[in-house]
Design goal:
The complex is a heterodimer. Chain A is built from twelve helices and 14 strands. Chain A is of the alpha/beta class. Chain A has two domains: 2-184, Rossmann fold (3-Layer(aba) Sandwich), CATH 3.40.50; 197-322, Rossmann fold (3-Layer(aba) Sandwich). In chain A, strands 3-2-4-5-7-6-12 form a seven-stranded mixed sheet, with helices on both faces. Chain A has a five-stranded mixed sheet with strand order 9-11-10-13-14, with helices on both faces. Chain A has a two-stranded antiparallel ribbon with strand order 1-8. The relative contact order of chain A is 0.12. By secondary structure, chain B is α/β, with parallel strands linked by helices. Chain B has two domains: 23-327, 3-Layer(aba) Sandwich (Rossmann fold); 334-363, no CATH class. Chain B has helices at 28-53, 67-74, 90-95, 100-108, 142-155, 174-186, 217-220, 233-248, 278-285, 289-299, 305-327, 347-363; strands at 82-84, 131-132, 162-167, 190-196, 199-200, 203-204, 225-229, 254-259. In chain B, strand 7, helix 8 and strand 8 form a beta-alpha-beta unit. In chain B, helix 1 packs across helix 11 (305-327). The chains are: A alpha/beta, B alpha/beta. The interface between A and B is large, with 51 and 56 residues.
Chain lengths: 324, 375
């Protein structure tokens, strides 16, 4: 065990995968000698050589398209998109190609690959360095979408994603890169995809969240506890395929549900959780399901702290469902 | 890259001399104005770097080393043309009369910022005194947009042009290739200005292409490609003037590769000493575009120490005052989160805005984050 930040855990996960499997390689913009703009790939080129960790020309479409080709021909590429906001030139390759390859070829061809990319706000990055685009991708059959919130899970989920036979979009909450630290086991270990994590047990209100919203919800739950409201906080960790049974169990446990994400509300991931619960266990619900989200606007710069859900907003929703 | 310096179009010699009888196409007043704009870029750039280091603004993009390309290009165009800049183009705005205070409002993201504090610093957007198109962070997206704007000029029979500016990294983008292709097919009045400044963040320009430079790419899209010394203001002015003349006459687009050098980091969050060879930087420092143009002006009798002192004092005061004004301007109001998403505020956004105001009243305002930009 060592104590690492989330970004160090990602780096450790990449090194562990590359040491254990020579098919694994890393490509992207500035991932080589610079080690990535957030230093996620620091030291990889020196340890594994420029054939296994290298800078590409500045084209996200090229990065993902070539990674698919590597994956179908025996490699295990881990492609970095520098900011999730820059992923859209590669949307076609991800959504129409990587995600559909197994299905369209009758299972003959597959693209086992990981696309790592930092997402979310909190760094004064404005419209194009702050977005949370998980809903676009969670809507895509054939693609897995994974979001860690702790160093332990970042490494364990990354190793599970690299080992997974299907393409995985691995969204890293950049606001947590250096702000959270935790115990991380040495060497290879896997956190199973499609399993959620109970962050704290509780009996009054269930709060579903993921990524950078997890510590926000934990703090809101502590404040709620001071008022006697006992919150069950659930970190979803994998958005697709979702641990539906786990979600329904957690919803039934309290009968009062709040979902939280930074992304805009309309057609956001919280709507899926809400609909899943309404369709299956509405008879257990004691209050309307409340969503706390970013606004349905582009992501602002100067006022980003007003845009992102904070403890105030989460607590307000917890109080309203608790008192309904 | 194998292209030698002898292949570059250069006008100003190292000592400031020019070929005999060379016609700059610029009046003495315009030459002095260009020099002042270069000094203004440097003052604005230095001030922003200091403001960022002092934690008074969040971010900036160094512009040192590429002033001749920016100002040389701007000096060849008209205020009625349409500029699609990159995020490293202070000189185009400053030469064509955008007041430094307007740019400073963006750097501080305050209530008087033309984009209402919504974008990161250096992502300017102006409609007056020139059409300086709103800057996006994703690379190359504005290249086909400039072609569309040029098509509109052509369709209306106007003799204006679009100029789109991007770096060597930008040539790898989808936007570059589709934009170049469309412009060639449409014979659109657009100038593609590739500022080859040596680096795309940490990647040297030979990581972007296996071709002999970038200008050569023009051939495949059916347009002329020219390589120019980007540290030579007169040479850049000349090739952009010629490209604009061709475009105005209906002869279509031109790709210009300006060879220059980013003498700072990619941004305030980047440490170029980790990857830029010191000897390479020193070599380019000897070709400093501002000093080179100053030597030219001195040789022409258009510069002396007194002028230098006066201009330096003017531009520093202008930038200092601009920073003071912007820093003392309040931040944008909460309502700016919800406005301008659509022409009319839809009911669901009105409700979200009202809920935000209501929550702020009941539970207090959101605390300002301590977010710092890492790139």
């Amino acid at each position: 065990m060592s104590t690492l930040t989330l970004i160090q855990a990602v780096n450790d996960g990449l090194k562990t995968a590359m040491r254990g499997d020579e098919r694994v390689l890393v490509l992207g913009e500035d991932v080589g000698p610079k080690g990535g703009v957030f230093l996620a790939t620091e030291g990889l080129t020196s340890e594994f050589g420029p054939e296994r960790c290298f800078d590409t020309p500045l084209s996200e479409d090229g990065i993902i398209g070539t990674a698919i080709g590597m994956a179908v021909n025996g490699l295990r590429p881990v492609a970095e998109i520098q900011f999730q906001d820059f992923i859209f030139p590669a949307f076609d390759q991800i959504v129409s190609e990587a995600a559909k390859l197994r299905y369209r070829s009758g299972g003959q061809y597959t693209a086992p690959m990981v696309i790592r990319t930092p997402y979310g706000g909190g760094i004064r990055g404005g419209l194009y360095h702050s977005q949370s685009g998980e809903a676009y991708f969670a809507h895509t059959p054939g693609l897995k979408v994974v979001i860690p919130s702790t160093p332990h899970d970042a490494k364990g989920l990354l190793l599970a994603s690299i080992a997974d036979p299907d393409p995985v979009l691995f969204l890293e909450p950049k606001a947590l890169y250096r702000s959270v630290k935790g115990e991380v086991p040495e060497g290879d270990y896997r956190v199973d995809l499609s399993t959620l994590r109970t962050v704290r047990p509780g009996k009054d209100v269930t709060v579903f969240c993921y990524g950078a919203m997890v510590p926000v919800c934990e703090r809101a739950a502590q404040q709620a506890a001071e008022q006697g409201i006992d919150c069950l906080v659930v970190d979803l960790r994998t958005l697709t395929p979702l641990d539906e049974e786990g979600v329904l169990e957690a919803a039934k446990a309290t009968g009062r549900v709040v979902t939280v994400h930074e992304a805009p509300r309309f057609c956001g991931y919280g709507a899926e959780i809400s609909a899943l619960i309404a369709e299956n266990v509405i008879e257990y619900m004691e209050a309307p399901i409340r969503r706390v989200t970013g606004f349905d606007t582009p992501f602002p710069n100067t006022l980003e702290h007003h845009y992102m859900p904070d403890e105030r907003r989460v607590l307000d929703a917890i109080e309203s469902v608790a008192r309904f | 890259m194998t292209m030698t310096e002898a292949d570059l179009l250069t006008v100003i010699e190292a000592d400031g001399g020019t070929p005999p009888d060379f016609d700059t196409g610029l009046s003495d007043a315009e030459l002095r104005r260009a020099y002042r704009a270069m000094l203004s870029v440097r003052a604005f750039d230095d001030t922003c770097m200091k403001l960022q280091r002092a934690g008074r603004i969040g971010f900036s993009i160094p512009n040192r080393g590429i002033e001749a390309t920016q100002v040389g290009a701007a000096s060849a165009l008209r205020p009625t043309d349409f500029f699609f800049p990159s995020y490293r183009d202070f000189g185009m705005a400053l030469y064509l009369g955008v007041p430094p205070v307007e740019m400073m409002h963006n750097m501080f993201g305050d209530a008087l910022d033309s984009a209402k504090g919504r974008q990161m610093p250096v992502h300017f957007s102006f409609t007056e005194p020139i059409k300086y198109f709103s800057i996006s962070s994703p690379i190359g997206t504005h290249i086909p947009q400039a072609v569309g704007a040029a098509y509109a000029f052509k369709l209306r029979g106007e003799d204006h042009v679009s100029l789109v500016s991007f770096g060597d990294g930008g040539t790898s983008s989808l936007g570059f290739h589709s934009g170049m292709n469309f412009a060639g097919v449409w014979k659109a009045p657009v100038i593609f200005l590739c500022q080859n400044n040596g680096w795309a963040i940490s990647c040297p320009s030979d990581h972007q292409t296996a071709s002999d430079g970038f200008a050569i790419k023009a051939a495949a899209y059916g347009m002329p490609g020219i390589t120019v010394d980007g540290n030579d203001l007169l040479a850049v002015h000349q090739v952009v003037s010629e490209a604009a003349e061709r475009a105005r006459k209906g002869e279509g687009p031109t790709l210009i590769e300006a060879r220059t050098y980013r003498m700072g980091g990619h941004s305030t969050s980047d440490d170029p000493t980790k990857y830029v060879p010191a000897e390479e930087l020193a070599k380019w420092a000897e070709k400093d575009p501002v000093e080179r143009f100053r030597r030219y002006l001195a040789k022409r009798g258009l510069w002396d120490e007194a002028l230098e002192e006066r201009l330096q004092a003017e531009v520093s005061a202008e930038v200092r005052d601009a920073a003071k004004v912007a820093e003392n301007t309040p931040g944008p109001g909460l309502e700016t989160i919800f406005s301008d998403v659509y022409a009319q505020l839809p009911p669901h956004l009105r409700r979200q805005g009202e809920a935000a105001f209501d929550l702020a009243k009941r539970k207090g305002e959101a605390g300002a984050g301590d977010g710092a930009f890492p790139l």
